[in-house]
Design brief:
181 residues, mainly alpha, single chain, extended
Length: 181
């Protein structure tokens, strides 16, 4: 085997490497590792615990705030069907989950489905009689028609909602400073 020249990090043959040239690696202190793990476990960097009740509130603080939504005095979501909702919103409006449930309830009222017992499609706008798809009360043609109607109903509802928001916006007091988030 031919003699090979040492690499840049190696010394020539018969010369010892000098260990004093580089600092000796040391592992981090145990307390530092525990602190890092505690921050990861509790999300201390992103979501601190509520500072109310002398820090005894177990709820996470709202992003950008030092307290949770309850201690900030935010009202509960009014829900959509009378069942209590435990989510608190800044403005007292419906939370995202209740808005979705209300949308689906409106769709059920606007586009009712009456499944049949014999496995045939009841039809979307009239009697169909074709075989229904597995796990679906409609056949493929009626499912597509019902999805088009669903999209139309959602677009109409969003247009009414956007018009109501646009009409209410001029009546609201302008903010003196933008929101912190």
């Amino acid at each position: 085997m031919p003699h090979q020249a040492p690499g840049p990090d190696r010394t020539a043959r018969r010369e010892e490497r000098r260990r004093e040239d580089r600092p000796t690696p040391t592992s981090p202190a145990w307390a530092d590792l525990e602190h890092q793990q505690e921050q990861l476990r509790h999300g201390a960097d992103r979501h601190p615990v509520c500072g109310a009740d002398d820090g005894r509130c177990p709820t996470l603080a709202v992003v950008g705030e030092t307290q949770c939504a309850e201690h900030l005095g935010w009202p509960l979501c009014p829900s959509h069907d009378g069942h209590p909702c435990t989510v608190r919103t800044r403005t007292g409006d419906q939370c995202a989950t209740c808005q979705d449930q209300a949308r689906y309830a409106r769709l059920d009222v606007a586009l009712p489905v009456t499944p049949t017992d014999d496995g045939t499609c009841p039809g979307h706008s009239g009697p169909c009689g074709r075989a229904a798809m597995p796990g679906d009360p409609y056949c493929a043609c009626c499912r597509i028609a019902s999805q088009r109607d669903r999209d139309r109903v959602i677009q109409e509802w969003e247009a009414v909602r956007d018009a109501a928001v646009a009409a209410a916006r001029p009546q609201e007091a302008p903010e003196s400073a933008p929101a912190p988030f």
